[in-house]
Amino acid sequence: MYAVIKTGGKQYRVEVGNKLKVETLSAEAGSEILLDQVLMVADGENIATGKPLLDQAKVNATVIGHGRHDKVRIFKMRRRKHYQKHQGHRQNYTEIQITGISA
Fold it and tell me: Looking at the keywords, is Ribonucleoprotein present (predicted)?
């Protein structure tokens, strides 16, 4: 059984036991969260899709922790103009583990 959920402006295909790094959620480490924006649920041959969301479907998850991704380096340069710009960015994330899918 798997589901497609939407969180943080992105879509994820999840199964029970999966660990994901999603956009930052306001929840403490170790707490249970409920993801209710479910787009699709599939159980073998039975597939249920929403228009755009399924009303009855829910996905339960546990927050493992918070962290920051690796640094992405940005380098901009204009040739022959003596212009160089160095910049870096580290995106925050919340790591979750899927504990249950209910349709």
Answer: yes
| Contact of 59 with 73, CB cutoff 8 Å | no
How far, in Å, are 6, 24, 57, 92 from residue 73 at the CA level? 28, 21, 39, 15
Over the stretch 1-29, which tens digit does the pLDDT of each residue have? 999 999 999 999 999 999 999 999 999 99
C-alpha 94/C-alpha 19 separation (Å) is 10
Please report the pLDDT score of residue 21 as a whole number: 97
The Cα diameter of the chain in Å comes to 61
* CA-atom Rg of the chain in angstroms: 19
Burial class (CB in 10 A: 0-12, 13-18, 19+), 37: middle
Residue 65 CA to its chain's centroid (Å) = 13
